[in-house]
Structures are given as structure tokens and as C-alpha cells.
Design a protein that fits this description.
This protein is of the alpha+beta class. It folds into 3 domains: about 90 residues, no CATH class; about 30 residues; about 180 residues, no CATH class. The protein contains 12 helices and 7 strands. The chain has a 3-stranded antiparallel sheet with strand order 3-4-5, with no helix packed on it. Strands 1-2 form a two-stranded antiparallel sheet. Strands 6-7 form a two-stranded antiparallel ribbon. Helix 3 packs across helix 6, helix 6 packs parallel to helix 8 and helix 9 packs antiparallel against helix 10. The radius of gyration is 39 Å and the shape is rod-shaped. The termini are far apart.
Length: about 325
Amino acid sequence: MTAFEVTLNRETVTVAGKDDLGVLTAIVSAVGVLGRASSGTQGKASGYDLDLQVGGLTSKGKGRPAHTIRPDNTPNRYDGAGNVERSVRRPPSSAWRTRVMRMLKFVVTVVVVVLVLSLVPKLFRGGKEPLTAEEQRVWERFLAKHLSSGTEVPSEAEADAVVAIGEKIIPYVEGQFGAAARVPGTYGKSEYWLTIVLARIGTPRAIDGIVKVLEHDWSGAVGTNRETAAKALVWLGAADRIAALEAAIAGHKRLVAQSKDPERYGVEVNALVQYLELLKKGEGKRDKSKFPFGPALIRRESELLRLGGQGPT
């Protein structure tokens, strides 16, 4: 018996044959763009499809009619030992294989991108982008004065030098929240200088840091810190953070109610409520680089309150 062994990429797909065949055919067709000068065919203007069909015509003799063996009624498979078994289905077209490969490539690419993005923060220290030597010196000089247990505090020029580093300094600033209150002799020291830096950077990422000051999940000067952060939100016109300020006010009310002197600390709640009203009105929008610096911001009779007619003129 004569049979056709069909291979694809050097792998045997099928060995086709039948004992009663008089004709056995194997047809390979290529349709589409088959050369540089080809414009393809209708329905296949790019790429090409390869198709293999195996068929035949029976010849049983004795007046019996011949039957055509079509590709969908594939000839049987020759087992190499004189026997014929049922043939396997013909392989998918190259177009189908191309689509599958493209899909697999896309899935692999997405997985790789997700893994890379998840690892990027780990390439830096705690998700922080490394500072240059000069930036590190600027930051350390500012931080030393912020953490000082004496009367020494950062100057406006030193704060602005930190601001000039840009957004990559923000994780470093956030990493110092609560640190001043842990330095011996500085309990109750505020995050005022850190908030100044964030307010003068003034980007949405910096405002996220200001909101963390409002939330205040560390010990220290809660009232002063929240007031400074609230003023910063008003100054920057961060109306999208109204909910954060409202939550801070609710938390501060509970804190004041539990304190030994609710009447004294209740003034802080009143100030926060005033800043909330200003934020809702859209008052106090200013150039972020000119956010007030120095003791005037700490006093409640600051320029921000005067903007809303709440303080002395």
C-alpha cells in the first residue's frame, strides 16, 4: 500500500493511505501576500495562509462506483507495519497558529510588565528614588535643624532648597513624620517645617503627604500639625480633599473630648472648621511657592483667616 507521510516542521502529522485507493493526493496552498511585490488577495491583504489537504479516489473494481475521499473525511493513517488506522485531524492553518502565538506573546508581555512595575519600588530604598550627593547634603542640613532639640530651626532658604529637589523628596519627608516628637526634649514638636516643604512643592503627590499630616497616626503636636495641614490645603485650593479635612475634624473632636482640658483644645477644632469653610468657598488659592513661612503661619490670626473675614485685619 502506498501512503503519504505528512510532516510539519520536521514532525510527522499523519501518514495517509487506504488499501482501496486508486488516487491519493496531497495539496498545499498558499494564499495572501507571497512576495514583496504582492498586494495579497481579497480578504487577505496582509500576511498569508498555508493550507494542506489530503484526499483521494477509491478504486474497488467489480463495477463498484468510486468514492471521493475529501479532506473532511480524511484518509486513514498508515501505522508503518502494513496496517492502516484512522487518521488524525489535519493541523490548523498557519493563520490560526499566528493568532495563537500573538496572543501568547501578548499575555507574556503583560505578565512581564506587571512584574517589572511591582519590582520598581524595591529597586530603591523603601520605594525612595536615591538622592544625589548634593541633594543628600541639602536634605540632611534641613533635617538636622528640624530634629534639633534646641531653638535652631530650618531657614526659609534651607526649606526652599529641599523643595527644589522636587517630588522625589516627598517619600523622605513622609518618612520623618513623627520623628521630631521622638527626639529627647522635643515631645510635642510639630511637623510644621515638613508641611511647609510639601505645601511649596504643591503637586497632587505632595498634597497626599499633607493629607497624611491631617490623618496624623503618630504621637506629637496633633493640633498644630492638623491646623498647618488644613491651612496648606486652603492655600493650594485642594477642594478635592474636603472629605479628608472633614474626617480630621471629626477625629480631632473625639480627641479633644477625651483630653483633660476640652475647653482649651476646643479652639483647635474651631480653627479647623474655619479652614474647612474657606476650602469649600475656594478661598486662599495662591502661588504654591509663596506658601507662608515662619511663625505667622502658626498663629491663628494668619492671613488665611483674614481672607475669609475670620481674623483681625
